[in-house]
Amino acid sequence: LRLDEKVRVVVFKSEVKGVFCAGADLKERAKMDDAEVAHFVKGLRSLMDEIASLPVPTIAAIDGYALGGGLELALACDLRVAASSAKMGLIETTRGLLPGAGGTQRLPRCIGIGLAKELIFTGRQIDGQQAFSMGLVNHSVPQNNEGDAAYQRALALAKEILPQAPFAVKMGKLAINKGMEVDIASGMAIEGMCYAQNIPTRDRQEGMAAFREKRAPQFTGK
Fold first, then answer.
1. Active site residue: 22, 24, 168, 175, which one?
2. What is the pTM of this model?
3. Interhelix angle for 103-111 vs 113-122, to 10°?
């Protein structure tokens, strides 16, 4: 996906009705020794980092349970859409654990330190509407009979992104992600560098031409 220039948006969904991702298999985990657990969690953390660093926008379609590592997967995505009936939470403390695949870092960056601490300390599960009110998800939608309401809303969101200039979207994502890690002055410098890379693109010229000619732009990602 990282190298395929035809890919403009990635939507993560589950093939299991009622479950986005239920997290680690604790029965399997119980059979591991301490070294194996550490290796396993390191691999999960690496996977989440790979997802978070995909150059194109990513959307998690949460139509059911997103617990523990399942919510960490959703947090690694840029955008999240949830059915109002979905259940999500970083429930690790209820099992003698703490989030180990990015949850302690991505949740506070998403909803703020106070709320993140409350959810992690209590291991509480919340529904899609509560998640929306906290800013954990971008959209909360009523579940439909097919059980894929969040996926359908995620597709609609993806279709809003698709017509936009692909390279500009990628640079926008990069500028936001890198800028959030530094002070505002450094962030402005990062934005400037990303903007400079976008200036010589054909898509920028096409965008200007389409505006002058009062037509829809035809972006190619070049």
1. 24
2. 0.93
3. 130
